[in-house]
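can u pls check wat happens w/ flavin mononucleotide
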Amino acid sequence: MVTAGMKKTILITGGCRSGKSRHALQLARNSAGKKFFLATAQVLDDEMAERIEKHREERGDEWVTFEESLDLKAVIETLESDPQSVLVLDCLTLWISNLLMADASKERITREVNELLDSCSRFPGTMICITNEVGAGIVPETPLGREFRDLAGEVNQRFAGQFDEVILTVAGIPLKVKSGSGSETDQSLASDHEFSSDKKEGLYDAIYGRRDVRQFKPDPIPLLTVEKILHAAHNAGSVGFMQPWNFIVIDDLEIKKKISKNFSKANDEASRHYSDERKELYSSLKLEGILEAPINICVTCDRERSGPHVLGRNTVPDTDIFSTCCAVQNLWLAARAEGLGVGWVSILSMEKLKAVLGIPEKIVPVAYLCVGYTDHFLKQPLLEKVGWGKRVSLENLIYHNQWNQSSKGFL
Ligand SMILES: Cc1cc2nc3c(=O)[nH]c(=O)nc-3n(C[C@H](O)[C@H](O)[C@H](O)COP(=O)(O)O)c2cc1C
């Protein structure tokens, strides 16, 4: 995982289709700064053009892509980057092949490699280079093939020697083969309580891979899994250990139909706030999966639980609602780890919801969740994908010491 603002050089090596690029993108996604992708592939035919386009789409809009087959250092040197930026270079082996095909001599390639290594070390943010383990197969038949294999092996050694971290991907599994300066090894000395890289990766996978899901498969959810996600919710922090939540698990179709009707009415009313193109876009969005999801869960807050005075709630009474939201987030993340999608539906009349579910007057429904398996988790929020909204740059949201005071130089 790339930690925001930490300079690091990472080499990812492995066989074809071993998951190198995917792992590089996973590592980069935590970066708060600009994300650059430098592709060395040349578009030689339609198949290649199609593959490149597909990869570009998968990366999404937050990436700025450059295509350069030979002069990589020139691109790196001109990037407007800072310590929070991340650059993925994909890949070194194609670059070497491009140089060979351009009739570059071994001396020129050695010089280019040295210059590229210098550029990588000067890059202020995190540099992730992808390469291939080409030497593991049979001996190439042609002299050019053997020259390429040998050069690729030597270049990999140079980069691996100089870079902080080296990761080998095998059948989609990343194995860290070198942990160097600025890496987890050093940090783990700072705290006995730090998670191992695998555990951290799992946690961050749940955080960054969580999505609001509105499309569900009808497959039933094993009860044990439902219990697990409710347990996760119940282990959230709560003000004064108040645990103000209840979870109403709904699988009755008739009840779901009533709530679906409630949604349709509330949604029609909500759509009146928009006009023209925005209204058209709003109306095209699927904003719930009440009927499809095998279960719905209504998470409520009992504002009087633990009596009239709750430790820590004296000054901010809404901390009971905040606590319930923490439980929802735990459930959402645990569900993601279990492969379950969760969609939060707030476009509902809460009064009607309470009546249908028999919720007492003093209890507040905080979240109405649709839960179930799904065919896919979108890479980016649906609202971002359809152009409704954009993720705000984290950089602009962090202040230093004072409201509105830039954190540049600190982070
Ligand atoms: C409190 C809350 C209420 C939400 N209500 C709805 C809703 O009624 N319908 C819907 O489609 N999404 C709803 N969402 C989901 C957000 O639209 C979604 O979280 C946001 O667009 C970011 O996408 P992501 O969750 O996939 O990252 C809600 C989310 C939260 C936190």
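Residues 143-162 form the longest helix (20 residues).
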